[in-house]
Specification:
By secondary structure, the chain is mostly beta strands. It has no helices and 10 strands.
């Protein structure tokens, strides 16, 4: 069973919004910090946002003020609300544990494409 499954990506015009979701099938979800990561073609995977088990959040400078990460421990879900999207936000988005050194198997991710 894939431990993490992302959904919600799609094609949107610049300035638009998308809401990503991630469902976890791992029992330790509620005790772990989670992150949303992204990988654009030809680039390394990067951390976009993280959220602690208690709800404290941090964001990459490139998305600060535009993206919001949240979680629902009862549902084992992590969310990423993305507003004011830019073409440079185009990437495959993944959720996983945070920090990256403690990540589990990566899911297939969800493609986000922002047209100019």
């Amino acid at each position: 069973q894939v431990p993490l499954v992302e959904s919600g990506g799609g094609l949107v015009q610049a300035g638009g919004s998308l809401s990503l979701s991630c469902v976890a099938s791992v029992s330790i979800f509620t005790a772990r910090a989670m992150g949303w990561y992204r990988q654009a073609p030809g680039k390394q995977r990067e951390l976009v946002a993280s959220i602690s088990s208690g709800g404290s959040t941090n964001y990459a400078d490139s998305v600060k003020g535009r993206f919001t990460i949240s979680r629902d421990n009862a549902k084992k879900m992590v969310y990423l609300q993305m507003n004011s999207l830019k073409p440079e936000d185009t990437a495959v988005y993944y959720c996983n544990f945070f920090p990256e050194r403690v990540t589990t198997a990566w899911g297939q991710g969800t493609q986000v494409t922002v047209s100019s």
